[in-house]
Every structure is written in C-alpha cells, then in structure tokens.
Structure prediction request, 836 residues.
Amino acid sequence: MSDTTTLPRPRRALPSMTVIGPVLALVLLVIIGTALNPNFLAWANVTNVLARSAFIGIIAVGMTFVITAGGLDLSVGSMAAFIAGLMILVMNAALPALGVGVPLVLLGMATALVAGLAAGFLNGILITRLGIEAFIVTLGSMGIYRSLVTWLADGGTLSLDFTLRSFYQPVYYGGILGVSWPIIVFAVTVVLGEIAMRRMVFGRHCAAIGSNDQVARYSSVNVGRVRLMTYVLLGLLVGVATIMYVPRLGSASASTGLLWELEAIAAVIIGGTVLKGGFGRVWGTVIGVLILSLIGNILNLTDLVSPYLNGAIQGAIIILAVILQREGKAGA
Amino acid sequence: MSAPALALAGVSRSFGPVEVLHGVDIALRPGRVHALIGENGAGKSTTMKILAGYLAPSRGELRVAGTPARFASVREAEAAGIVLIHQEFNLAEQLTVEQNLFLGREIRRGWLLDKPAMRARARALLDRLSCAAGVDRVVSSLSNSDKQMLEIAKALAREARVLIMDEPTAVLTRAETDILLTQVRALRAAGTAVLFTSHKLDEVREIADDLTIMRDGAVVWQGEAAGMSEHDMAEAMVGREVSGLYPAKPPAPGGAPVLEVEGLDVPGHAEGVSFGLRAGEILGVAGLIGSGRTETFEGLCGLRPARGRIRLDGREVRVRSPAEAKALGLGYLTEDRKTRGLLLTKSLRENLTLTALERFARLTIDTAAEERALDTAIAEFDIRAGARDGPVGNLSGGNQQKLLLARTLLPEPRIVVIDEPTRGIDIGTRQQIYRFIRELAASGRSIVVISSEMQEVIGLADRVLVMCRGRVAGTLEGADITEAQIVRLAMGLGAPAPAAEEPA
Prediction:
C-alpha cells in the first residue's frame, strides 16, 4: 500500500450520466423546441415558461430536502390549494377593516407563510414523533387539505375581491427589468437551497439521515429535528409558492394545485436526487422542473404531437431518468 | 460408538495469507450431541461454516458418512441432510409459521398451493418438537423459543440428519432454554447428529455427550463431556498470554472519578449498574453476548432510554440524547461499524466530520478545513485509503475502524466508550488500535472498552467490570484480572476468591 500522507487531493472526476444526463436532456429539448418553432427562444416565451415553472419549482426545492432525508410529501398540492383558499378568505374578510393596500396584501402573505409552516410542522411531527410512515401521513393530509378547500369554497370557487385582485396582480405579472417576481423568487429559492444542500450543516445532515438514519443517530445528529425541519421548510415554500400563485388567477377551487405533488416529486427525481434518500441535488431539481415544463410548452407551440399526450411524455421521461440513475449509480 | 455422520479430518482454513483454522478434527455422530466451545475468535464459526458447506477447507477433508465430500454450495450440503441454524433467526417475520416452513419448497397441486397438505405437515413437524405454536400464527408474534423451534422444524422439513446450531440459546431465557434442550434431547433420541455451541457452560454440561474445546483456531481438548466440570472447561478455554500485542500498562491512575454512575437501569437490558471512571483509566467491560454490556453504555450515552444517576466531575447530569452526550464530552463508538457506524456510500471526509460538523461550519461548511482534518486523521491514525474521495464502504474493516475512531475523537470527548474495538480486524491493525487507545488514556481521557474477547479486556484494561444478565457481577483490578476470574463472573458462578471490589 502506498504512503498514506501523499494521497492525492480529490480531483474533479468526469461527470457521470446522473450528473450530465438531465442537462443533456434539457439541451436536447431546447434544440428541438427551437427547431420546431422559432418563437421558442423568444423572451416572452422563455419568461412565460419560467414563471409557470416557478410554483412547482419553489415547492420542488423543498421536496428535494424531504426526499434527500429519506422522506416524502404527497400533500403539497392540496396544501397549496388550502393555503390559497385560506389566504383569499382572510384577505376578503379583512378588506373592510384594512381597505385595499399593502397592509392587506402583507396580511395575506403572512397568512400563507404561517399556514404553510403549520401544515409542514404538522406533517413533520406526525412522521417524526409518532413514527408514522411519511407516505401514510402525507397521503392522509393530502385528502384532508383537498377536502377542506372544497368545503371552504362550498364546492365552487373562492375568489379574491375584484379591486384587491387588481392591486395584488403585479406580484405575479410585475417584476424588475422585465423579469417577473415569481422567476426572481424561484431563483433566490434555488440559490439558497443549493447553498443549504451543499454547503450547510442542514444539507449534510439531510443526506446523512437519508443515507442511513442509524449512523446519523449514532453520530449525534438530531435525526428527529432535522427530519421535522425538512417538512417545515417544504411547508414554508408551499406558502411562498401560493403567494405567487394567488395573484395569477385570484381564485382557489377544489382543482387548484392538482397533481402538483407528483410533478414536484418527478422533477426532484429527474434531477438526480435519489428517491430512497441519501443524495440530493437542488440544481438538478431545477433542471427537472424545466424539462417537465418545456415538454408541455413545446407540445403547445407545435402541432406535431397532441398536447393531450403531455402526461405520457412526462411519464416516459421520469421512468427513463430513474433507469439512467440506476446505471450511473457509482456516480452518486 | 456409531460411525460419524459428518466429520472434519485435519481441516485448515486460510483467509488470504492468514491461517485461522489449524488442522481441526471433529466427528459428529448420529444420536449424539456434540458441544463446541471456545472464546470468540477461537475458530468455532469457521469450523461450523466448513461443516455446513458455507466455506470450503483450504486443507484437509470433509467427510459425509465416511466418504470425502466437497460442497459447492449450501444447497448441496442441505441436500445431503446438513443444516446450519444461524444465531440470528432467518425467518420472514410477516409470514405465518406454515408459510415459513415451506418457503421456497411449497407443496402444490397443479397451479395452486396445497394449503391443507402444508398445514398438516407443518402441524406434524411442530408436534414432533412438542411446539404448541399455531401454524397460522404470524412469526413476528412468536416468542424467541418458538422461533428457535420453527428454525429446527425447518431443518427437519429438509430431513436434516446433521443439525448445527450456532449459539441457539444466546437469545433465550432460562425457561425457553429448558424447552429447547428438551427438544434437542428428542432429536438425539431420533438419531440426529447435533452440533451445539454455547457460551453458557452449564448448558453444555447438561446436554453434551461429546465435547470439543477450541482456542486460537485449533482444538485444545476433545473427548466425552461427562468427565468435564464447568471449571475444567473454562480453564481449557483460557488461552496463553499474548505478548507485545498490548501496550504496557502504566501504574493504575488514582484520583477522584470523573464519571460516576449509580443505579443505571436500561429497561429490558440492564438493572442497577453502578461504576466509577477515573481520568486516564481504561475500564474494560466483559460479559457474554446478551449480558447487557452494549445496552448499558448505549443507555449512558443517550442512545436508549435509561434511568439512573450520572455525575460528571461530581455534578449531576442528564443524558437524554446522543447530542447531549456529545455536549457533555461523552463519545460512543459502536460495535456495528457497517450499519450504525459509517455512511458506506459517502466519502471519508463526510464520514469523518459528521459528528463534529458544527466545528467546521459558521453559516456554511468550510470544506477546506474538513480536508485538513482528514489529512490529520489519515496521518495520525494511519488510515490507508486507495481513493480519498471514494466511498468508505471500499475500505478494509481495519481502516474503517480507524476512521470511525478518528470521527469519535474529533469532537474531543473526555470520556470515550469503545464497543468491540477490534471486531473483524486483523492482528496488525489491532495492535495499532490498542496503542491508540492506550495513548488516549495517557492523554488524560477516560476510556471504556467493551469487548467479547477476553484477552483484549485483560491486555488493555486497568480495571474490568464484568456483567452477567444485565447486572454488574463484579469488578476486577490489577492481578485479579485473569481469564478464569472473568469467566467465573460472566457465567454467574459467583464472586471470585478475593471478594469483588465495590466500584470506586
């Protein structure tokens, strides 16, 4: 055996398929999109795609932490719908007292954040303290929130007061230098998420727990608290996403946020995060989100394939991503 | 005496350049119970594995009913009627008794399972063992002794003529053991050849017809069991003094204890454990597997619920979690390197700093500082890693253990509990690890070494705490630390000649 003190410092290994696979897929999609429709790379289309991706994207960043720590959250879609409904109710109710203005919007935002925190905390507590499977807990809360929003809307639609809606709308449609707020918030979330995952104790602990929670426990990692924090973070980000989403349509109904959880989970997995936990990549999740939204966008812009087949193509991509992940396991 | 059903003749076995079994002869005869005893590491497991076809001998011969045989697989050995029952149960916990019995060998009628036939056969097999467990019960709901019976029934279902049992009573209570021994007698009466290992010498006295005692990979005593007392057996198991392997012991440290534990209860595992620990001292903890050694110290380090008074420097403290233990300067190195110790798919760096990660982070982690810490650990503990950023799972056991030791010491604990410091580690690395442990003590830390290997405890410890059935059976010091004394205490044979000293 060689002298141990002269071991080489880690060198950059060639990126494996799990790393470059999603990037290649994204590049391929952009090329196909441009070839099929010259307007594909137009500023308007790019910002539109990004703004629409922002909701799922912000949630998917949170989901990356949950999955990396070996958990899962199926409730985010209905949680978003419930928070949206709650936010609209609170804002409408406070309208006579506060009048249309910044304080009212801030109240709505605070409602969304607090509700998101609380919902995430509830999921997390049930999973960590009572030791119930994450799948079961969040399957249950998914049903509960979906049913609550239907009940709040009395089976119909909850709408933001009309004048309030026009006041609040810039949060979705406005922005700085032509970049809309959802894109900015999404970008900030991604940058912070990437730093937290790769450079902070929290991210390292998430990966350790997802990799082997016994080892983490024996290494004095507070496994329960870190797990709980992943769900709280996700809940908070669902709240943030909802704040961006409500001004878009100004309403919430039983079908708000439908299947968002699956899109978020799919984006995380396509991005190279391991479904069983132990390894997560926030920037990969962003690639995953973009791949999923670009497929829809391309189908809408061209008439080569029916847009109704969007789901089928997305499904095939997800399965393909997992197969590639398995082949390139050594790279993870 | 009947001809042997299964025998080893001059069998040796090497792993790489190291020979672990030296010319072993053993003969299992139909209708007789053969007990195989010896310390951990004496070569019992290797012998059993060769007998049951899990390992091939490097030299020598395996004979089935007198004719030389070579098993290519465990399946072939089972086809020849030789079944090994592992110490850990090999049962599908969520399936029923009957489903387990016929797992992989289901009786079929056309395309469908022949349930009635399997149930009837299952009942008949269990009746033969006087086991009352219902055939439809889910295995997870069975008691340990019923599970053991089910393992035996599985062996019977395969028409075992030779049954090899690896410490079948280690997990059983005394009452359950009695039931098991009755069944073993019934098997003997039915003409089965039984090989039985146990650390409990009273059971060996009770059940064995023939006896083989091993030490350091060789048979040191063989014959009829009838003439041997428990004391004789323990003495035959006692090995030579290993010189040079262990660092010299400095004079026993004096002074007030740093850690005082009083009446520590770990529900289900240990009761009323009291001891003291001084600065610079190595306290050895001996006892049989299942005596509550590991659980006691896991309880102390916040890894299990525990009650009792713990004083650090005379100040009463509570340890409710591993994080609290770390904050108090208590470190624990697990015996279970692969499933509790290391993240096998992660790099050396991430494993090294996991426990003390906050030392490397303000808002973000300083990976350069982590790399420097790894450089230091590699140099200090002589960790030999082929690829520095490769997964830790690729390291040898010895290097994994050194990395684990480095990790445990990184938060600079004052008290370090090391559970099985050298399990599955070659002799050279062992010597290094013993030296590290002694150096740690010399630097003023207090060390607890829990070990199943008596020589290790004797060679390393300044004082030895012997546990038996969840209690402290006694404490040995200085010249009293002998294998005979430890064995006596661990077997629950009462206090050694000089009265056991009360913990300091």
Remarks:
- Chain B touches chain A at residues 303, 321-323, 325-326, 332, 334, 339-347, 350, 354-355, 357-358, 361, 363-365, 367, 371, 375, 378-379, 382-385, 388-389, 407, 411 (CB under 8 Å).
